[in-house]
Design brief:
2 domains, alpha+beta, 9 helices, NADH Oxidase, 56% helix
Length: 246
């Protein structure tokens, strides 16, 4: 699956089929997390895979009693080793960088899961102490979140999103732009550029969809034409024999 297709198709899945997830797919999801960027390349994270039903129930209980989590056959607890960040970056590393790093790893794992045909959901509303106790995490590490993983039993629609021009600014202070709105002349070029990009994207999408529609509409006709050519190519005697049998 194309990376942008995986990004567009990713949804937070909270209903799962009662099917096991192949271990090689779990490994691929973990590999995507391993390859995520991290501050100072510290890679100060641990990924704890939980498949035991009893432990999944305990994690769901620790996650504000979100019992839908139990349906997911695999939980991946993303653990941040914050004392390692603190040694290198001080309090900012402990209070911020470790959270950012784990979030980037989680995002890459969710995109990989989508590309592999799996559903996932990142759960951050957790009691760290209780979740840590379930997976025996102690000392200078703490659970940053739980990634549920499994085959989706639902297909949620994409929620409403802001348009690109409503959230992006070109060399303009975003705070001032938000307070004062679009000031004529300040970001007109950016609006124009985004508009051109959107127009081009619509054109590409239209042509792609049109090609798919044409292919679908002519598929049966092509099939019928091929059958006629095959019939025409048969020896006349064989055609007579088939006709006599009928």
């Amino acid at each position: 699956m194309d990376v942008f297709e995986a990004i567009r198709n990713r949804r937070s899945i909270r209903k799962y089929l009662d099917l096991p997830v192949e271990w090689d797919k779990v490994g691929s999801v973990l590999e995507a997390g391993r390859l995520a960027p991290s501050s100072g390349n510290l890679q100060a994270w641990k990924f704890v895979v939980v498949r035991d039903l009893k432990k999944r129930k305990a994690l769901a209980e620790a996650a504000a009693q979100q019992f839908w989590m139990e349906q997911a056959p695999v939980h991946i607890v993303i653990v941040g080793v914050f004392n390692k960040h603190q040694r290198f970056f001080g309090d900012r590393g402990k209070d911020l960088y470790v959270i950012q790093d784990c979030a980037m790893a989680a995002m890459q794992m969710m995109i990989a899961a989508t590309a592999l045909g799996l559903g996932s959901c990142f759960v951050s509303a957790i009691n760290e102490e209780r979740a840590g106790s379930t997976i025996l995490i102690r000392g200078g590490a703490r659970p940053m979140g739980i990634l549920t993983l499994g085959y989706a039993a639902e297909t949620p629609k994409m929620p409403l999103r802001y348009r690109l021009e409503n959230i992006s600014y070109l060399e303009v202070d975003a705070g001032l732009a938000y307070v004062h709105g679009y000031t004529p002349g300040r970001i007109a070029d950016f609006d124009s550029s985004v508009g051109n990009w959107r127009f081009a994207q619509r054109g590409i999408s239209y042509v792609k969809q049109a090609a798919e529609d044409i292919d679908k509409a002519t598929k049966e006709k092509r099939k019928g034409l091929l059958q006629k050519l095959v019939e025409k190519a048969k020896p006349k005697e064989k055609q007579k024999e088939e006709k006599h049998r009928k």
